[in-house]
Batch of 3 targets.
Target 1
Amino acid sequence: MAGHSKWANIKHKKAKEDAKRGKVFTKIIRELVSATKQGEPDPETNPRLRAAVEKALSANMTKDTIQRAIERGAGNAEGGEMDELTYEGYGVGGVAVLVETMTDNVNRTVSEVRHAFTKFDGNLGTSGSVSYLFTKRGEILFDDVSLEDEIMLVALDAGALDIENDGESLLVITEPASFGAVKDALNAAGYESSNAEVTMSPSTTALIDNIEDAEKVMKMIDMLEDLDDVQDVHTNVDFPDEILQQLS
């Protein structure tokens, strides 16, 4: 899974750049509202809300903004109901793609998502066509591999499932429900992650080893992420080092 880890680093870098431009704030607020509506307004007892709060804080959203979104979700105020739908499809080279959306107009959303796939030689699939390739889990990334033993002790004791070391970074893996507790334990022990999120992790990867196809995949992902109704995009793409260097 070394290729996936390297792709994850690019994804995290892109996310930080998007956050600086304020592109992600609307999406995060939607997730905060929805997570609160579907559970308790307390992040300590609502794992999905806790993950959304973590994402908001990592994007430098203010605590006041986060609290207003939670209060909006708890009071079911402002705006109509939003449908949460996941679309599945393939990009060039057999790259599997999951697109998580939140929308008040399903016809608009599916049309825009389909257009992004077809524009870059992909195709929108049916429900279940690629979701079986992904598992929902918490991922906490550290850049210092020399701390593996120390981080492993703290993480496993706090309930982590495993730790992966690809020689460049450490990836602590958790169940979605224990993500917050493991991250808290690592923070309390003085270990600050470079990225932490609950995501969809692929069980297999699709190697894209030519720059033309790699650029199509990246452009498709960018177009999907730029759609207002899209909350997140997950993929199993694996880029070799030489392709990563050309893309970055």
Note: The longest helix spans residues 2-20.
Target 2
Amino acid sequence: MIITALVPVKNLDDAKSRLANVLSANERRMLADFMLSDVIEVILKISNIERVFLVGDKQLPRKPGTFIIQEEFNNGYNEAISFALEDERVASSDAILILPSDIPLITAEEIKNFIANVPKDGVRIAPDRDQEGTNALLLAPPTQIKTQFGKLSYSKHLELAEKCCSNVKVIDSDGIAFDIDTPEDLRDFCEKINFTETYKFLKSSGIVARLLS
């Protein structure tokens, strides 16, 4: 089975705007870049993921081991996925794994578990910590459902999948669930001493000390 990973990436200059009251523009940009690197590093460890595609605009950073699908503009997460599906390398896959770029605590074991024994016709969903958003989505085939990323996407994806597919599975996974969107998320992350490049950046830059003081 050919599984392709898709990571939609927002323009780094505009990334993590909800952190503007605790991080400078440059800090937010660097945070987004390090989180993306952590996510890619983990995906590339999974041998049965055929290719990893980053989808974004012309400012999309190039990362070793990945392929670029370049949009003219960042129009949104769902639009990026629809645009990627126009690429034959993605569309011809048996399944696609969609992951955000802001879940630096994700592990290879979590991904392996999430994509284990993928059915030919099915949907797998991993919610965020609040059980509101979707932090991982597996679609087999890639056009199984139209993605619903945005507010309350978890319930929307689940409802849509259950209407059109008999093989739907929800997988709760701590690392996948932990995204960094708000100052509270960032403080929670800073309290979790870890070996990610994201944490190293936050520690060495003094952000950890600043946020936890």
Note: Residues 25-43 form the longest helix (19 residues).
Target 3
Amino acid sequence: MTLLSIPDLIGRFHPILVHLPIGILLLGCLFQLLTINAKFSGLKPAVPLIYLLGGLGAVFSSVSGYLLSQSGDYDSNMVGIHQWLGISVSVISLSVYSMYKKQAKEVTLNLIAVVLIILITVTGHYGGSLTHGSDYISSALKDEGKGKAAIPPIANVQQAMTYTHMIQPLLQNRCYSCHGAEKQKGKLRLDGKDFILKGGEDGKTLVPGSAEESELIKRLLLPPSNEDHMPPKEKPQLTAEEIALLEWWVKQGADFNKKVADMKQSEQEKAVLLSFQTGAAKKENKLADIPEKEVGQADAAAVDKLKQAGVVVIPVLSSSNYLSASFVTAKASADVLKLLEPLKKQLVWLNLANTALDDKGMLEVAKLDNLIRLNLSRTPVTDKGLALISKVNSLQYVNLVGTKVTATGVEQLKPLKGLNSIYLYQTAVAKDDEAKLKKVFAKVNLDFGGYVVPTLEKDTTEVKPPAAK
């Protein structure tokens, strides 16, 4: 955890400090203009004090604003304009106070009041643009409501360019306001390939080929109440299909130049992609690996208990009652795992990757007899725990990457007739056992990993001198 320096801390008070002098100065300008009418002449003695207080407040706001700008989270050109406008407000406000003391002409004071109102308005506009984007006001006049899809409908999704037609519009409509050209919260920009791959102040945001290690995906899956959840809870949220799209893109290598059709897709992923296609039949707009028969809504109290424990519970489709649960920010303790049982009818996807789930915890997982997708990667689960899910007949996908399971343990899953994928990279399955498992699971996709990418002549290679003898 990085501690803030004193200047950083003071800078973060700018949004709080800036509103007080704005209100004070506008009140001073209003009083000044009202004194044109003799009926309000009684206000005149208060005006210089108001300008003095507002001017001093503007000075403090300018200082804190300058310190905030040093974070590098904002567009430097717009920051420069906003900064000098703010300084101008401070100088003019204090100058007007001095002019009052010298008994300047009323016409001059009235004219300055009008100029100050305009200057405060323009300064505030640039400040709002830095925070919310330059089109913050105008966007309210456009048909861009919160409920609008972030990805425009596509006539033929398989022929679409994955990044240009799908990923980029999604990021533009859900992420650019905080991570675009005008504002880079956490020094992260997502409005271009080089920026995305560069990451932010916390390092890499995207790990091509690994959605589970990509901060971009992790933060999307955090509970909205978590301060690191993205987008912030007050912003439009991504749908389950949009999150699934990003996960698929990252998992397939986060390619910026390929068509959808040129990237590997499971049946479930094809169904997700189809949901973005214009005129796709509603019946087809269902995931291939969720039950065709619909189910009633899950118990809201049970869902809330899981969320309070840090478990991310979301619908697998925005139009479905079937649920996905992810322990990305929760401990897979026995008490928390027991909270899953009331959702056994609705829960079809369960992600326990990178948790301390052990064989004892698998007793609770085995009770979830509607599970279709189960991710146990990099957990302490062994063959003993794997045996417990051999009667979860609905299982189609099991991820065992980085576990200690052996070929003997994997064979215990043979009774599961619906299995179509088992991921076994970095497990205790011996190389000699791979052929045997392929015979046992003749109709199942067994992924043992260990892919080797050939080096081509055009590739850049690093040549090192031989070690000194």
Note: Residues 225 and 233 are 7 Å apart (CA to CA).
